[in-house]
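Format is sequence with structure; example below:
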Amino acid sequence: MSNPDHVTFLVYFGGYWVKNHVGDVAYLNGKDIAIECKPEEFFIKLSAELGEGLYGQNMWYKYPFEEHNERKRLRSADLSFKRMCDAGRWTGVMNVFLVNSTEHPNDIESSEPCEEEIRVERNVASFVDEDEDFDYHNTPPNSDGEEEEEHLVRYKRGSGQLEIEQVFDSLEEFREALVAYALKEGCNIKISRWGKDKSAAVCGTKEPCPWYIYCSYEECVGKWKVKTFEDQHSCTNDNYCKILKAPVICKMFLDDIRTDPDYGPKWMQQEIEKNYNLIVSIDKCKNAKKKAVEIIDREHKEQFSRLKDYRLALLQSNPESIVVLDTVLDDDGSEIFHRFYWMVVL
């Protein structure tokens, strides 16, 4: 059986990413090799295998049971490598993908922000949960509106930019934009109206203030449009923000808590004040941490279930192989993942 300290990295190279019309992602025209080593030795072993062919490559990794669109960027000298190593120790097998940045430049962004910028932008990129029963007017716009749609002012997710006649795919996206705006400007705003087809927000301070934004559904383009926007505050900034509730804070720091379970409410409170000049209560941060832990716990249970399915799939496709999913029992008698072994018998 394989060394328990080693991880099997299935490396795909020479190919590129493609996406079809429904958003499914695939890696095409690549070759593959298997590298078995300690996780921290991965780049040394990969360099020995590919030599100069490693230069100019952009990399991604994913769990074997994840879809391609769940892949994550991999860099040799930042937190992403540590995360991949930790994940590899957990699963025993990792998939790694290489794409030549010169031949396929559109597979990546044109600029690479630093780790701190990545974390701050990630924290403001997604805030609100989707309501499964919400009516998003999924009927496509009619042909008369298609020409008008080409000239729409579209919202760039996470930018914090709001403007008149800006359009959104849903009211949830509009609310997400409000949160990003509040964080970017460090101002206090609150939702004043929230309905099926319209929403509005006003200044959240106690002083009279003209700041106001109103968004409603525009039938001709099939989207929600900002109809009124008064972007001037006459109040004194109180450094609070009523739209910054526990579920929003939870999403802001969810990845940080995944990486470091000891990431506490006090740190969350300090980071918000440091990065956005906003004050939030410690109780609100405690509720956010509690929600994050519940989400991560549900994810772990789902991933553990998928790992069992993955083991069965390996045995079905490779009947002669040895696949062992090792677990231990928790205090309450529930199964906890311990190790995963996979050995291919040739």
In short: The helical segments are 42-50, 79-91, 115-125, 143-149, 171-185, 246-259, 265-276, 282-317.
